[in-house]
Every structure is written in C-alpha cells, then in structure tokens.
Amino acid sequence: MDINAFPTKRNLLNARHSLALARRGYDLLDKKRLVLMLELSAYKKSGKLLREDLHTAMKDARHILALAQMENITERIKSLCQFVPYDISISINSASMMGVSIPKIEITGKKPAILPYDIGKSTEALDKALKAWNETKLIILKLAEVDTAIYRINCHMLQAQRRASALKNITIPACEARIKYISEQLEERERDEMARVKMAKAPVFPLGE
Questions:
Q1: At residue 115, what are phi and psi to the nearest 5 degrees?
Q2: Is the distance from CB of 98 to CB of 36 less than 8 angstroms?
Q3: Which of 7, 107, 118, 137 is most solvent-facing, going by the fewest CB within 10 Å?
C-alpha cells in the first residue's frame, strides 16, 4: 500500500495540496494550449499567404528567365552567372513564445547587388530575371521561418495537451480518490474514538442493583 494513502491528517493535507497543484497546472496548461492554438492559426494564415506569394514569384521568375534565355545565348548567361553570389549571408536567432523557441531569420551580410556584372554585357530581361529570383529567395527564407515556427508550436501544443489530459484523467482523479479514502477513514476513526470515550464515561452500576 502506498504510504501516502495511509489515513493520517498529514497525508490528507498533502493530498489536498497535490490536488490544488494539479488543478492549477491543468488550468495553466489549458490556457497555454489555447494561446498556442491562436498563434498556430496566425502562423498558418501567414504561411498560406507566403505560399501564394512564392507561387506567383516563381511563376514570374521562370517566365522572365525564359525570356532572358531567348535573348541570350547559353554561354553568355553562364558567363554572367559566375558574378552572381551563390547565397545570402543569414543568421538564425530565436525568440521564446510561451516556452516555444521561434526561429528568426535575418540577413546579416550586405544585400547582393541587383546587377553584380557589367550591364553592357547583359540585357534588360536578364537583369529582371536576376532581380525576380533574388526576391523569390527572400520569400523562401521567410516561408522556411514560418514553417519551422508552425512545426515547433504544433509539437509544443500537442505536448501541453497530453500533459493536461494526464492531469485531468489520471492525476486529479487519483488525488480526489485519495482524499476521499483518507477522509472516510479518519471520520470512521473519530467515530470509534468518540464511542470509546462515551463508553469510558458511562456510569458503572454494581451487579444485582
């Protein structure tokens, strides 16, 4: 038998304290889950808009690049591409939101020049294609930030929901059952004690009177 379930006043006080903590923890986790649901909904909405922007940006960028390829021979395009930076210097920081680490992607390096090559060797279509793909890359970075936030919030929300369910369905009922058992045992003990006291105080009459 669990020593914490022994019918003592100390165990009764401990059980009531545990019940109060469990109920408070459940309320906090439930509120946290609701807040995370609102944040998750906001990020999903932002992600949906970013995907629409990305679809449009990539469609436009492909179209512009196709026009540039029609105006420029492949060797000229390859020659100019070697002057285009391969990537944008970025840093990934994080911000805490209800215990969830939300990534924040920032461009740390200098923004790449829109025309990093000799404009005399290029065409207007190729210049527009470079600009369009640079803008597309920025949308991809932002979408990666949002998608990562959605994944982490969703995982944290499910974890909070599991903990809240465990408190509601296991911990709280167990504490309530323990309080009920100890209280009943103590009350029965008090009744027995009162009965013994009454018997001890009752007058004793000699036999035969």
A1: -125, 85
A2: yes
A3: 118
For residue 145, give the amino acid letter. Answer: E
Backbone phi and psi for residue 100, each to the nearest 5 degrees, phi listed first: -100, 130
Structure tokens of 7? Answer: 């019918």
Q: How far apart are CA 48 and CA 44, in angstroms?
A: 6
Distance CA 100, CA 106 (A): 19
* Residue 74 CB neighbour total at 10 angstroms: 8
Torsion of CA 38, 42, 48, 50, to 10 degrees: -160
> What is the CATH class of 3-187?
mainly alpha
Q: Of 87, 85, 136, 135, nearest to 113 (Cα)? A: 85
d(CA 115, CA 128): 9
Burial class (CB in 10 A: 0-12, 13-18, 19+), 131: middle
Point out which residues pair with 92 in neighbouring strands.
Answer: 105
Cα angle, residue 202 at apex, residues 200 and 205 outer, rounded to 5°: 115
Q: How far apart are alpha carbons 189 and 172 in whole angstroms?
A: 26
Q: What tokens appear for 121 in the block?
A: 């060797």
- What's the pTM? 0.72
How far is CA 136 from each of CA 7, 101, 131, 142, rounded to the nearest angstrom?
A: 69, 26, 9, 10
**pLDDT tens for each residue of 55-109:** 999 999 888 888 777 766 566 666 666 656 656 677 888 888 888 889 888 876 5
